[in-house]
Design brief:
2 copies of one chain form a homodimer. In chain A, about 55% of the residues lie in helices and about 20% in strands. Chain A has helices at about 40-60, 75-95, 105-115, 120-130, 140-175, and strands at about 1-5, 10-20, 25-35, 65-70, 100-105. With about 180 residues, the first copy, chain A, is of the alpha/beta class. Chain A has a 5-stranded mixed β-sheet with strand order 3-2-1-4-5. Chain A has 5 helices and 5 strands, in the order E-E-E-H-E-H-E-H-H-H. Chains A and B meet through helix 1 and helix 2 of A and helix 1 and helix 2 of B. Chains A, B: It is an enzyme of class 3 (hydrolase).
């Protein structure tokens, strides 16, 4: 299972590709950041993010794209930009027919550290250990993108079972 | 001056094309709504909006795209969807090199009704009058998209003067 994790943002959009299966060792295939200049026009920044994401999709051909689910509880201005960058990432994946999964920050933290309230350093440390890296990926957005991909690989079996249960339930209702 | 106005939304994205110049009669070239099913996956909805916007750009070849500037003061869930739909509209325009302008809801209302606090009915009535239509365009999102386009046509001369003043000021600073 090959997953591209995307930690969306206009200034720094973290991207990381992880391959593996739940219960097996994981492999990092790539990590980086798509950056856009803060003083550029919004439309041009979105075009630059699209180009960056497309390059990562071309280079790694992931089977899934995991994007951080955006909430509006933080700084309003930042959240708008995050929502817009995440829209571009989802658009690029869906246009190619790649399934998109959204995971909340606390789901990601809980998946990789055991605690939904872990800090950046703890997430970075666990990503480094789980992927057997020499040092935590920098900046934090890159580490977060890898954590998203790991989270998806580990949560996917449970999510699939849930979807199958829902599907069977629906079939039962229809055929009853 | 031909402007495509976009009132962004995931369920209903209003689109309207107006041609004209400040101080001259305006002409509506088209109006409509790009809809996506509320039960579809977010990524697929964004792809459908992209396809819809592309069709409008192909059909009308606007010189400017005016998009409503999204704020976060309202319902959080709606605002996220609005931000994501607006990102797709801006992306489509910027990818073609079409300049994108953002106008706030109160700027749009003030432009077409004289009051930044006008209600939907008042905006619809003025759009109908200014474009010499037989009835207000339905739904409100379609009328709002036309109002955005009209707002841009009327504000553009002032915005351009501002930009030129800024540019001259910068040149003066550099050559001083």
């Amino acid at each position: 299972m090959r997953v591209l994790g995307v930690d969306p943002g206009l200034t720094r959009c973290g991207v990381g590709v992880v391959e593996g299966l739940a219960g097996r060792p994981l492999t990092m295939l790539g990590v980086g950041v798509v950056r856009t200049p803060a003083d550029a026009e919004l439309g041009h920044r979105l075009v630059a993010i699209e180009r960056g994401i497309e390059e990562w999709l071309d280079a790694h051909r992931p089977e899934f794209v995991a994007v951080e689910r955006v909430f509006s509880q933080h700084n309003v201005r930042t959240v708008m930009g995050t929502a817009q960058a995440s829209a571009v990432a989802m658009l690029c994946a869906s246009r190619r027919g790649i399934p998109v999964a959204l995971h909340t920050p606390s789901e990601v933290k809980a998946a990789v550290t055991g605690s939904g309230r872990a800090d950046k350093a703890q997430v970075g440390a666990m990503v480094t250990r789980l992927l057997r890296l020499d040092a935590p990926p920098k900046p934090a957005d890159a580490a977060d993108a890898l954590a998203l991909a790991i989270c998806h690989i580990w949560r996917a079996p449970a999510l699939n079972r849930l979807q199958q249960a829902h599907a069977q339930h629906s079939v039962r209702k229809v055929t009853r």
